[in-house]
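ugh ok fine here u go
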Amino acid sequence: MRLTFNNVLPTVVLFSGIASAFSGHDSASALQHKRTPLKPRRVQSLLINPDAQPDLPTVQAATAAATAVGLNLDDIQGDLLRAKLAADILPLITTTNQLLAVATQPITALNIAFSQTGLTALNVTDSLGDSFFSKGQLADAKNLGTTNWVPEFTRTGIHGVILFASDSDDNINNAVASLEAAMGDSITKVYSLSAASRPAPNAGHEHFGFLDGISNPAIIGFTGTPMPGQSNISAGSILVGETGDSGSRPAWAKDGSFLVFRQLKQLVPEFNKFLTDNPIVMNGLTPQQGSDLLGARMVGRWKSGAPVDLAPIFDDPVLGADPTRNNDFTFQHPDAVLSTNQTRCPFSAHIRKTRPRADLGTPEETTHHIMRAGIPYGPEVSGAEASSNTTSTERGLAFVSYQSNIGNGFRFLQQTWADNANFVHSGVGVDPIIGALAGAQRVVTGLDPTNSTKKTTLTTDFVVSRGGEYFFSPSLSAIASKLSV
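structure:
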């Protein structure tokens, strides 16, 4: 489950120079002076709840679930337990509970997180118990198979990230200007990236056209009743210091989370051209249907969100829109051998690489789940790009994930599963969507349901990482006490 913003226009701002901004009494006051309940400011919710995703809990339901396991939703930044951005202007951040009620939603949501360099600048010397966070994402670039980074991400002076979200450019611009005015010269904007939900009928879909965010897990202490097939994970898989987090953490870090940010460029015209040139050939399929089937098998879902494991030949939009059915599968079928059969879903398919379900046995392992929150950036494909099959203007996904352990979360999914040609079985190839081998060609098997041993060579990375950073998103009490005094 995740939060999805209505007509949201998020902006990601990387900053440096925070030591003086957050180390004195005035900054502490800025963090605390609006901690009283927000006045009603919206008549329409900032959030939407797509049919394909489980219903959002009410404040009462979320509070009851949290109380049962001792989770304090009033101290957790609102973007963590749901996977979208939530907060208010300045370093004043709304709680998860406030975000779930229209009356307390801010006009512009805000989320803040700090890099290891930023924490060091704040004289915070405690180890957070995560070596990948401590070293930063740039040091991990080769291990993630990524190249061609945005120059700003190759620097070591990024202290933090602020994520703004609202439903108009004016709201975003006002929030950014207000923050800059409040902080003056004490912080410097290093880089910003603006994103927005795609226009109808593609709202909720990423630039390749596939409905996004369907498989986020349910979290004990927040989700009352998980949907069929939805993974149910402990809060400690996402939040530091909660049940299920096995790391050694300082007490002040409790209820924070490690935030992974990546700017993922998508080569949409090139991807569409590949599908057009390599349709699945089967009796009863037109060339266009064969191309659509190839794309669905590369992802593991149709553009509607329907899983190919349940709809193996044709899309089923009704299935895709039904949260009680669209995750209710394991890749296991009584009429097929799980370890060899790829008729329904290839072993290399994106959703199977990143959540192998019964491939690793039952009950499903829950060690490597993350909470994902991504939103498209860049314009729609132009007519000239479509006709030339060539990207001329960058577009892609502003990817954000939360986890209590980067090595067990994002990094494991990317390196150990998606980039591993021998997972889940030897020789199946890397994830054809996000698998990265530093630009080298990738060989994938299983994409053709009529010939599971057929090799498909991908000479283009359709998703290219443009860089990113590892951050820590602290609880509100940690910001007010540990990071501002």
